[in-house]
Amino acid sequence: MGAFIVMPFLSSNYIPVKIRLLFAMLLSALVAPILPPVPAVDAISIGAALLAVEQLLVGFMLALFLLIMISVMTKMGAMMSMQMGLAMAIMNDPANGNSNPILGQWFLLYGTLLFLALDGHLVAIGVIVDSFYLWPIGMGIFELPLMGLVERVGWLFAAAFMLALPAIVAMLMVNLTFGVLSKSAPSLNVFALGFPMSMLMGLLCVFFSFSGLASRYSDICLDALSSMHQFIGG
Fold this sequence. Notes:
Layout: H1 2-6, H2 17-31, H3 46-84, E1 90-93, E2 98-101, H4 102-117, H5 120-134, H6 146-184, H7 190-231
Antiparallel strand pairs: 1-2
Helix pairs in contact: 3-4, 3-6, 3-7, 5-7, 6-7
């Protein structure tokens, strides 16, 4: 349940809480017979509550790798929107309770569908099951490489910037061209011409960016899943 709270797609408010709870119970019932022995504790004691909190936190931190991975697409869309002049075009998301640029929502949907098409959710669930072998119950959370999880935040911005870099450079050249044009022909209304042209060129950049985005994002998904597995000692 700790993983399902933040895991992409499964954490969406469009999926009822009862469905997520039943799925967690079904998964637990399926893997319980093959798991290592659980420490003998009283089910209604403080020790059992601490073990439950520990497992919730471990699942939460494992799913954070996937949340950061899917946020790369949102950050990429935000960077491209800033260059296109669509920074003020915000679309409210009633499911997640936040507001993101339209391109951010678009790329987020694309990244989620691509992650599901690659069976990334099955690999993630497999890593969560393996965590009971690699990091047995009762090992605690302070021995985990927590700094590696913190460093993934910097990786988020670096990966988003590398994906959006071609479009950013192309839009920078367009803005420089209109700057030179406004300097050489002051009487020309550059704002009336530059804004629609910048948006048109930005849409073309978005269109061409999809040509190689799938392969690059597949590498990002593989890196995120590998880091998720290495986090628990895999």
